[in-house]
Amino acid sequence: MESIEQINYIKAASLIVYEAITKEEGLATVWTKKLKVKQEVGFVNEFDFDEGYLTKMKITELEEGKKVVWECIDSDEEWIGTFVSFEISQEQSNTKIVLKHYNWKEKTDYFRWCGYNWAMFLKRLKDHCENEFADQKI
C-alpha cells in the first residue's frame, strides 16, 4: 500500500490548527466551501468539489489538539478505502502538522497529483491559522 506524507509548521497554537481541520469555518477556508462537517467520531463529513460526487470522510479518531483521522467511504474510486490522518504537536512557537493519506492501492498519476494538492491544503491551512488568529499567542 502507498502513502502520501506531508509536513508543515504553523505559527499558531495546536488547538487553533485542530479546530481549523475539524470545524466548518476552517475547512471551508482551506478545502471547499461546500461541506457538511461535525466534530464527532463516527460522523461522515461531506465535501463537494463540483466533480459530480461527494467526498465522504468518516471520522474514526479525534484527539483534541493532537490528532484527526478520516476514512474515505465515498469519493473518487482511488480514494475509497484510504485514510487521512492529521497529527498535530506543539513545538515551541510552532505547531507541527503531519498529514498522511495512506492505504492507496498503487502509485498512479492521480496519487502523485493528490500529493501536490495536500501540500497546497497545508499551505492554505498555515495561511488561515497564522492570519486569522495572528493576535492569539501560542
From TrEMBL:
<dbReference type="InterPro" id="IPR013538">
    <property type="entry name" value="ASHA1/2-like_C"/>
</dbReference>
<dbReference type="Pfam" id="PF08327">
    <property type="entry name" value="AHSA1"/>
</dbReference>
<comment type="similarity">
    <text>Belongs to the AHA1 family.</text>
</comment>
<dbReference type="InterPro" id="IPR023393">
    <property type="entry name" value="START-like_dom_sf"/>
</dbReference>
<protein>
    <submittedName>
        <fullName>SRPBCC domain-containing protein</fullName>
    </submittedName>
</protein>
<feature type="domain" description="Activator of Hsp90 ATPase homologue 1/2-like C-terminal">
    <location>
        <begin position="17"/>
        <end position="128"/>
    </location>
</feature>
